[in-house]
Amino acid sequence: MTPPRAPQIPVVVLAGFLGSGKTTLLNHLLRNRAGNRIGVIVNDFGSIEIDAVTVAGQVGSTVSLGNGCLCCAVDASELDTYLETLTGPAARLDVIVIEASGLAEPQELVRMLLASDNPHIRYGGLVEVVDAAEFTATRERHPEIDRHLAVADLIVLNKTDRVTDARLRAVRESVGTSGGRAAVICSAYGRIDPELLFDPVLRPDEDDSFRQLTFEDLLPEDDRTHEEHLHAAYESVAFTSDVPLCPRRFMAFLDSRPAGLYRIKGFADFGAGDPGNRYALHAVGGFLRFVPRRWARDEPRLTQLVLIGSGIDADALRKELEGCQEPWQPSAADQDAAEQLERGMWGVLRYVRQPDDDVAPAAAPDDDET
Ligand SMILES: Nc1nc2c(ncn2[C@@H]2O[C@H](COP(=O)(O)OP(=O)(O)OP(=O)(O)O)[C@@H](O)[C@H]2O)c(=O)[nH]1
C-alpha cells in the first residue's frame, strides 16, 4: 500500500532590510523547533548557526542537518528545483523558510511561490523583519521599504531592546500605516513564537530536550513586566460550532477580515451547502485557500477554527462568526433554497485549489492541511 502523502508544507518568505535580524530570527526558529523539521533556503548559509544543529551531509549546494533541517543556497531561478528537493518524501519537513537576501524584492519570491505548480507546498506568508531602531533611517535611504511592508502578511518589529517604549509605539504606528492589512508583532532577537508561522507538531520520538516556547519566553528578560510588550504579542481566538456555517455570510466575513488578523486555520462545515465534505481552511494575510475533504464516517459535523493575529478584537470576531451560523438547513425537496445555497457555495469554491486530489488522500482526521 502506498503510504499517505504529506499534507502541503507551508513555505514562509522571510524578508527584511540588511541587518534587520532575519538570520537571528531563523536561528531562533532552528533552536526552538520542538522536534519539527524546518527546511531552510538561504542565499548564504555561512550566516546560519549550523553549530546549533549537526551537519549530517552535504550534497551539491544542499546541506542536510542531522536533526532534521535542510539548508540550500539558492538563487531565485533555482527555487523550484530546491522546493522539489525539500518537499520530497525523504525530507519529511513541517515548514520551509526562504530567507530573502537583504536587497531582494520579496514580492518576486511570493509571486514565484504562488505560481509554483508544486502540489506539495502552500503559501505560508511573507514575514518582513524591521529594525525598530533604524526604521526611520532605513526608510529615508530605501523608500521602497513601504512597498515591502504593504505586501507583507506579518511584520516583525525587531530590536525592541534598542528603543524606548515611546519610540517603539511611534515606529509601530508608522509601520502599521504602511503595512496594509499585516499584523505587527514586536520582538527582540527575533524571538517569535514558531506557531505564528506553522503548526508545530509534537514529536515525542524526536529530541524532547526542545520544548514549546511559553508566552513568557517570547518577551525579553527586562521587559517581562512591561504592559506595552504584552499588548505587542499576538492573540489567538478559537471558534467551534456544531451549527453549519452559511457559505455566503462566511465568505463576507473572510472578505472583510480585519487588519491584524494574520492566520486562520481549521475547517468549516457548510451543512447542506456540501453535506459530503468538510472544508479545510488556510488563510495567511490576504491569501485564502479551501481544501474539501470527505467527512469520515461518524465524524461529528463541526466547524473548528483558530484565528491568530495582533491587535484583534476576540469578542467581536467570535460574534461575527456566530453571525455566520445557519441553523436552518433546506431539505433536498426545497429547490429554491437549495439553488440559493449552491450559489452561496460558489464564493467558497473560488478558493479551492484545483486539482489537488493527488496531494493528500481522503481524510484521516489529522491529515488535512490545517
Ligand atoms: N540589539 C539587538 N541586536 C539584534 C537583534 N536582532 C538581531 N540583532 C543583531 O543585529 C545584527 C544583524 O542581525 P542578522 O540576523 O544578521 O540580520 P539579517 O537581517 O540577517 O542581516 P543580513 O543577512 O545582512 O541581511 C546581528 O549582530 C544581530 O546579533 C535584536 O533584537 N536586538
Automatic annotation (TrEMBL):
The keyword Zinc does not apply. It catalyses: GTP + H2O = GDP + phosphate + H(+). CDD domains: CobW-like (cd03112). It comes from the Bacteria. Residues 234-325 form the CobW C-terminal domain. Pfam families: cobW (PF02492), CobW_C (PF07683). Transmembrane segments: none annotated. The keyword Chaperone applies. Keywords: Chaperone, Hydrolase, Nucleotide-binding. PANTHER family: COBW DOMAIN-CONTAINING PROTEIN, COBW-RELATED. Belongs to the SIMIBI class G3E GTPase family. ZNG1 subfamily. This is CobW family GTP-binding protein. It comes from Streptomyces mutomycini.
